[in-house]
Amino acid sequence: MNLSMITLRPFTESDADAMMTWASDPRVVRFQRRHPFITTHEAMSYIQTHIISHPFYRAICFNAHVVGSISVKPGTGDGEQHKASVGYRLAYEHWGKGIATAALKMVVEIVLKEWEWLERLEGMVDLENKGSQRVLEKAGFQKEGVLHKFVFLKGEARDMVMYSIIRSSSSSSSFHP
């Protein structure tokens, strides 16, 4: 697979059909707070209400086709203005091909360059989501530990694994695991 065919771009409302390939798949949304979308209207509404106004939410494209999404959410409130959290989703047919890892590496480079205030980029993943843990590790994130019963997900308290990349103190333009 040619990973140079992976690009990121802002979402548009016309991406609702493509979004359904992962947003309606129970395998993909298993570790997300929301349930699978049933209709394209739900995807369209989500794009309009959550994605377009989001500070950093991009379509992951492979060979110019939207195959997933990746977002970075800046910390909010007191004591969190130096950090951000990353999340990603990828259509099942593209799992295990390096696409999510390549997209995540691209995003780390982008936010590092554009968000000079950012000192910590974190990714939190369900303990059972081994594939997503591998994505974070391959992208250079360091595992920090397990947070027990940390998130209430679809009616159940879940254990989460915290990963991070910390901006290097020796250089304002690089991260280190």
TrEMBL record:
<keyword id="KW-0012">Acyltransferase</keyword>
<keyword id="KW-0808">Transferase</keyword>
<protein>
    <submittedName>
        <fullName>Amino-acid N-acetyltransferase protein</fullName>
        <ecNumber>2.3.1.1</ecNumber>
    </submittedName>
</protein>
